[in-house]
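I would like you to sit down with the pair of lines that follows and say whether C-alpha cells and residues agree.
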Amino acid sequence: MDEKIVMYTDGGSRGNPGPAGIGVYVETLGKKYGECIGIKTNNEAEYMALIFGLKKLKQLLGKKSKQSKIQCYLDSELVVKQLNHEYKLNDERIQRFFIEIWNLMLDFKTVEFSHVFREKNKVADALVNEALDNEQCKLF
C-alpha cells in the first residue's frame, strides 16, 4: 500500500544573506525539526530546508520510502515554480540544490511540490524563527 506523507518546509535568513535557519514539519508523522545553517540567502535556506526534510524522511521511512508519496508544501512560490520547471534556474548554487533534490526524489514513489501561503505554514515558519533565536545562530 502506498503511504502518503505530508511535509511542510521553510527557510529564512535575517539579512539576505545573513544568519539562516530551516524548519521542517512532517505532519503525517508528527515530527518537527529546526536548525541554524550559517550565513545563507533566503532562497538557499528554502532549498536547504527541503533537502533536510527529504533526507530525514528517507531516514525515518527506511525501506518504506520507495512506496511513499511525498507531498511537500513550501511558502516560497519561487522555489516551488523552480522545482516544478516553471522558472529557470540561473544561479549555479541553486542548480546544485535542484540536482540534489532531484536525486533525493528517486528514493520515493512520488514527490510533489505545492505553494502554500505563510499562514498555512505556521509550524515550519515557527521552527525557523526558533532556530534563528537560538544563541548559536546569533554567533554568525
In short: Residues 89 and 102 are 13 Å apart (CA to CA). The mean pLDDT is 95.
